[in-house]
Amino acid sequence: MNTYRKTAIMVGALFIIGTAAGILSVALSGPARDEARYLVDVSINANQITVAALCVLLMGLALTLVPIVLYPLLKKYHEVLALGYVVFRGALETVIYIALTIGWLVLIALSLEYVRAGTPDAAYFQTLGATLLAGIDATNTLLIIVFGLGALMLYTIFYRSRLIPRWLSTWGLIAIILHLTTAFLIMFRLTSTLSPVIGAINFPIFLQEMVMAVWLIVKGFNPAAIAAGAAKTDR
């Protein structure tokens, strides 16, 4: 019987790689967060911001591979949710991550042109830069929603199938609902994307994904649930 051991290890590794790349992208994009000087700071730290953009792309590639790798297994338990997971976390997230990467690279080009041109058109560049940053923030908010809905599908399948312990999938369901609330807090301007409040609300899903990743690498999927899925397919 196929125990999907390699699948579990791959999924766990992809979660860790994606999360590490995401944290690094936030850390490296710091110079773009100073509202008064971001155009100058981005140009000074152009290489650093470029690496941050590439980290966003790496995060996207790692995390959007997860549903593709999991689909052959998940469809045995709920084909519609498994397909929805691929659509949201595979297809839609890929587009969003590419858009975010392009946004950061365009901001770098804009900041370099701003410094090269000098100050006569400062207001024009400031307006363009502010609009671009607003677009990046809006895209991040959309990512929260798409990621959250896809994750709800994943943890629903995990809960129903018992492929991972139910305490772990229940933790994921609760944490991802909390994560989805941050999209509305940001959309209604009750807080900012990188505020401590958002960080605190998102911490449970961050921790859950890392615990789940280690669990999958060390323990793998529940053999009894695998057997039940195989029996269902053979009917």
Written overview of the protein:
This protein is mostly helical and 235 residues long. It has one domain. The protein has 8 helices and no strands. The longest helix has 40 residues. The two termini are 16 Å apart. The model has no long low-confidence stretch (mean pLDDT 91).
Order of helices and strands, N to C? HHHHHHHH
Q: Describe the largest sheet.
A: none
Low-confidence stretches: none
Rg, Cα atoms, Å: 20 Å
Helix proportion range = over 70%
End-to-end Cα distance, whole Å, is 16 Å
The assigned structural class equals mainly alpha
Question: Would you count the extended β strands for me?
Answer: 0
* Number of helical regions: 8
Mean of the pLDDT scores? 91
Number of domains: 1
Strand content: under 5%
Shape estimate? elongated
In brief:
The chain has helices at residues 5-28, 38-44, 46-74, 79-117, 122-161, 166-187, 196-218, 223-234. By secondary structure, it is mainly α. The two termini are 16 Å apart.
Q: Can you tag this structure with a few keywords?
A:
235 residues; mainly alpha; 83% helix; 0% strand
Topology, element by element:
Elements: H1 5-28, H2 38-44, H3 46-74, H4 79-117, H5 122-161, H6 166-187, H7 196-218, H8 223-234
